[in-house]
Amino acid sequence: MQNPVNAFKQALAQKRLQIGLWLGLASPYTTEICALAGFDWLLVDGEHAPNDLQSLLAQLQVIAGYPASHAIARVPVGHGHVGTALIKQYLDLGVQTILVPMVDTAEQARAVVEAARYPPQGIRGMAGARASRWGRIEHYGRDANEQICVLVQAETRTALDNIDAIAAVDGVDGVFIGPADLSASLGHVGQADHPQVRAAIELAFERVLRAGKAPGILMIEPALARHYIDLGGLFVAVGLDSQLLASASATLSARFKT
After folding, report:
1. What fold does the segment set 7-257 form as a domain?
2. Residues designated as active site
3. Which of 79-88, 120-129, 202-211: highest mean pLDDT?
C-alpha cells in the first residue's frame, strides 16, 4: 500500500486555484452533502466549531469516499505544547493538510512545521495510526513528510508586520489571511470590506506570492472572493456550511411568511 499523494499540496505548488468550503456543523451527514458539491477542498474546523477528534475522524472518513474533494483540518491552536500535541493527533488521524490559526511570527511558523514533520526535519511522534493505515503503508514514516501540507493563518497586525518572514519559513506551503480577526486587530470589527482591511489583505497577498508561497482566504461575498482570486489567491473558501443553511432557511421562511 502506497502513501496517498497530497493532490492539494501539488496544486498549490503548481499555482492552480483551489476553491473550498468551510465545514462547521460538525456532522458527517452534512459533510457528505457538501462532499458531493464538487469543491476542491473542504475545511473541517476544530477552532470555532464543536469538533473533537472523534467527530473529525468521522468527517475524514466521509470525505475519503469522495476523493475529488481534499480534506483540510484546522486545529484549535498551533504552537506551544498543546498545539504540538494536537497537530500530532490530527496527522495521526490521516489529515495531510492542516490549517493553523494565529501564527504571528516566523518562530511560531517554524514550530508548526516541526510539529508536522517526523525527525530529523521535525518532532512529530511516531505511531502506527490511521495515517499509516495501521502500519500497512510501507515506509510511511520515511515518506510522510513530503505529503504533509502546512497552512498558517496570519490574522493580526503583528502577523502582517512579520508576513515576509512567516512566508519565507521552509515547510510553510501557504499563508491564509483571516479577514475577521484581521479586521478586529486593525480596529474595524466586523468590517472585512473596510478599505484599510482590504489594503492590508492585498499587500499580504503580494508579499506571500513574492515569497513563492500560496495565499488563501475565506470570503463569502462573491465579488470580494473573485477580487482576491484575481489578486492571486490560490486556496479560497467561498462559503460556510452553517451560513448556507442559515441563509437558505431564512429565505425560505420569509418567502411564505411575508
Report:
1. TIM Barrel (3.20.20)
2. 48
3. 202-211
